[in-house]
Amino acid sequence: xxxxxxxxxxxxxxxxxxxxxxxxxxxxxxxxxxxxxxxxxxxxxxxxxxxxxxxxxxxxxxxxxxxxxxxxxxxxxxxxxxxxxxxxxxxxxxxxxxxxxxxxxxxxxxxxxxxxxxxxxxxxxxxxxxxxxxxxxxxxxxxxxxxxxxxxxxxxxxxxxxxxxxxxxxxxxxxxxxxxxxxxxxxxxxxxxxxxxxxxxxxxxxxxxxxxxxxxxxxxxxxxxxxxxxxxxxxxxxxxxxxxxxxxxxxxxxxxxxxxxxxxxxxxxxxxxxxxxxxxxxxxxxxxxxxxxxxxxxxxxxxxxxxxxxxxxxxxxxxxxxxxxxxxxxxx
Amino acid sequence: xxxxxxxxxxxxxxxxxxxxxxxxxxxxxxxxxxxxxxxxxxxxxxxxxxxxxxxxxxxxxxxxxxxxxxxxxxxxxxxxxxxxxxxxxxxx
Amino acid sequence: xxxxxxxxxxxxxxxxxxxxxxxxxxxxxxxxxxxxxxxxxxxxxxxxxxxxxxxxxxxxxxxxxxxxxxxxxxxxxxxxxxxxxxxxxxxxxxxxxxxxxxxxxxxxxxxxxxxxxxxxxxxxxxxxxxxxxxxxxxxxxxxxxxxxxxxxxxxxxxxxxxxxxxxxxxxxxxxxxxxxxxxxxxxxxxxxxxxxxxxxxxxxxxxxxxxxxxxxxxxxxxxxxxxxxxxxxxxxxxxxxxxxxxxxxxxxxxxxxxxxxxxxxxxxxxxxxxxxxxxxxxxxxxxxxxxxxxxxxxxxxxxxxxxxxxxxxxxxxxxxxxxxxxxxxxxxxxxxxxxxxxxxxxxxxxxxxxxxxxxxxxxxxxxxxxxxxxxxxxxxxxxxxxxxxxxxxxxxxxxxxxxxxxxxxxxxxxxxxxxxxxxxxxxxxxxxxxxxxxxxxxxxxxxxxxxxxxxxxxxxxxxxxxxxxxxxxxxxxxxxxxxxxxxxxxxxxxxxxxxxxxxxx
Lengths: 332, 92, 505
What we know:
The complex is a heterotrimer of chains A (332), B (92) and C (505). With 332 residues, chain A is mainly α. Helices cover 68% and strands 0% of the residues of chain A. Chain A has a single domain, classed as Ribonucleotide Reductase, subunit A, CATH 1.10.620. The termini of chain A are far apart. Chain B is an alpha+beta fold and 92 residues long. Chain B has one domain: Monooxygenase component MmoB/DmpM (Phenol Hydroxylase P2 Protein). In chain B, 20% of the residues lie in helices and 41% in strands. Chain B contains two helices and seven strands. In chain B, the strands form two sheets. Chain B has a four-stranded antiparallel β-sheet with strand order 2-3-1-5, with helices on one face. In chain B, strands 4-7-6 form a three-stranded antiparallel β-sheet. Chain B is globular. The two termini of chain B are 20 Å apart. In chain C, strands 1-2 form a two-stranded antiparallel ribbon. In chain C, strand 1 and strand 2 form a beta hairpin. In chain C, helix 3 runs antiparallel to helix 10. Chains in contact: A-C, B-C. At the A-C interface, helix 2, helix 3, helix 5, helix 6 and helix 7 of A face helix 1, helix 3, helix 5, helix 6 and helix 7 of C.
C-alpha cells in the first residue's frame, strides 16, 4: 500500500535505547558502537550454576581480581562493532592477498638471499604457534570476561590471531613453493630447539592462568608488546637491510595490526588503573612479573635473530613497553 | 509429507546474485523442484543436489568461487560436501 | 616459478591444523579441563572434518561484503522511514518479542561458543566454534542496529537486555540458553547446534523472515536473511558434531540420545512463542505454524533422522506429541498473552474476522472447535467494554517456565496437561512429561531455576503490586496492553489517516 505522509508527522518518540539514555542522556542518537555493545551481557537472575565451574555464576565479576564499578566505563578507541571490524580487516586482507599474489607471481622469494630466507624460517615461521596460542588466550578472555564491550573486543582479537597464524603459515609455505618443509621444521624447533623452549614454557603456563585479566596483561599487554616490535618490526627491518624487503610485504598485516591494537590495550590499561589503587597495583605487579618472565623467555630468540645485539634490542623494546604502560598510569 | 523421506534442499535469497546459481541447479539437477517464496527461492530434490562451479561460471560469465555461495545462502538440509569444483548436499 | 597451487581442502588443512601442540610443561588435561567430564569419548580429534573450509581471510572478505549490503539497507530504511511501509503497526509486537527474547540469546550463544572455541581439545572443532562465536555476536549486533529505527518510533523496544534478565515470559528463552551455557561443552553444542539450529532453527527464521517480507518489514528481512547465511554454517556444524561424537565411540550414543531428547524438547517448548508470533502476531502469515512444522520438522527432520539412524540415533522422544500439538500451541500461547496483555511489553490484540477465517482454514480440526469461541467471547467483551485482563499470575512449568497452558492434545484437548514430582520434600510442577523427565534426570540443576512468578511472590521483583513489578521490568504504561488505543496505534493512524482496527488477513 502507499501512504501519503508529511515528513512533519514522522517525528521519533525517542532517540536511542533506554540504557544509552541513562548513560549518555537521550539528547542525540547513539553511535552504532554504543548500541552494539553496551549492557548487552546478562547481569542478574541467572538460572543455573555452570556444571563446569560451580564456584561462579555464568557471568561473574569475581573471575578476576580486577574490580570495576562499571565494566562499560572503557571505550574502544577504534569503536569496533562486528561490521566496522570486518570491513577494516577485509581491506587489510585485500592488501595482504595482493601482496602474496604479487610475490608469488614475480618469484620475489626466489631472488632473496638464502640467508634471509633461512632467518625467516627460523625466527618468523615458529611464530605461527605463538599466534595460535594468542588465539586460544583471547578466546579464553572472551569466555570468562565481564561485559559485552570486553567480550566483543577479545573475540575480534582472537580471530585476528587466527588470521595472523594463517598468514605466517602462508609465508612458510611460500618460502618452500607450497611444500611444508619450513612448517615442519618450525614446529620441530618450537617443540625441541632450546632457544624456543623458555617461551613455549611461559605460554603453556599462561594457558592455565585462573585470572582472565592477568592473562589479558600477560598476552595482550606484555607478550605482544615484546614480540611485535621486536620481531615484526625490528627484525624485519634487519631482514630488509639484508635484501629481504619481500618478507616485510608478507607480514605488513601484522605490523599494521599491532599499531592499531595498541590503542585498545593502552586505553584499557589507562581506564583500569585509574579506577582504583588496588587495580593499579595489581596491573603493575602483573606487568612486572610477566615482563620479567617473558623478556627472559624471548632473550634466546632475540639473540638468535640479532646475534650479539639481540639482548640490547630486546632491552630497548622492553623499555619502550614499560614506558608506554607507565604513561597509562601503571607503576612500572 | 512422510513419503519424501530423503529430501535435501538449498534455499537462497531471491536476488540477482542468486539467479545464475539457481539456473545452474536447474541445469544440473533436472529432478529438482524450484519454489519461489517471499524473498527466497527453495530448491529441493530427493537424495542429492549439486551446484557445480563450472556451470555457474558459464551462466555468470566470470570466475566463481564456490564459497561465494555463502553470500546468498539462507538454509540447507543434507550432508555438505564442498570443494573447489562443487557444493553438494546429500543424505546417505 | 610460482608455487604450485593448493586445492581448497589441502590448503585449509595446512592453515588450520598443526599449529596447536601437545603441551609438555602443563598437562593437556589442565589446558583443556572441561572436555572429558561429560563422559563423551573422543579417540581421535583429527577425524574432525569441517564441511565449510573458511580461512580467516575469506571469512573477513565474505562477512564484510554481507555487512556492507546489510548496513546500506538499514541506512536507507531509516532515511526513508521504512516503518511506514509495514502492513500494520500491530505487526511490531512480533519484533518486540524478537528483540527481547531472541537477540539476547544470540549474545549468550556468542559466549557459549567462545567457551567451546577455547576448550575443545581438537583444533578443527575449536576453529569452527570460534567462527560461530563471532557470528553470534554479529547477529546480536545487527539485530540491535536494525531494530534501532523501530525503537525510535514505537514503544516496547527500548530496554531489551534489562528485560531479558527479569520479565516473566522472557525467562523462557533465558532459561533455555542458560541451560545450555551451564552444561558441559558437548551438551552445549548438542543443544544449540543440533537440537536448536539443525532441527528447529528453520522454524524460527525461515517462515518468520518470509513473514517479515510478507508484512513490508524490509529491515528484518534483510538482517534475517543475512544472518541465515551464517546459520547454514552453524546448522552444518551441528550435524557434523553429532556424527563426530557417534563415530568416535559407541558409548557416546546413549549420552547423545539423551541430550537430543532433552534439548529437542527444551527448544521445541521455546518455539511455542514463535508459533504464536507466526500465527497471530504477523498481520499476514505466509505459512501457518502447523505447515511450517510439517515441512521443517516432519519432512526435513524426518530425512535427517533417517540419515542418522545408521548410527543408532532415534527420533527425539515425544516428537509425536510435538506433532500432535502443532494444531494447538499457537492458539494456547496467544490466548495466554491476550489474557495477560497488561503485563506484556508488546501489545496484544484479538484476531480479526479475516484472521480467524484463515485460522479456521489452516487448522480445520481444532480452531473452530476449541479456540474460536474464546476469541469471539473476548471480542464481544471488548465491544461491551467488559473485557478485563487476568488479575492473578499464572503457574509456570519448573523446566520450560511457560505458564501451564498446554493441554492433553492426544486424549482431551480441553484438559490442561499437568505433571508433578517430588524432590527433597518439595513439589515441582511441569507442563508435560518431556519437562518432567528433564527435571527428574537432573533435579539439582532445575531446582535452582529462577522462576519469575515465584520471585514476584517472594518480593524480589520491585514490589508486591503489578505496577511496581512493571516498573522494575522498565515497562512503561505505553508499552503494555491492547494495541487498539495504544500510542503505537495512534501514531499509525496519524500516518495512515484511517485504520481504526488491527489489519489482518
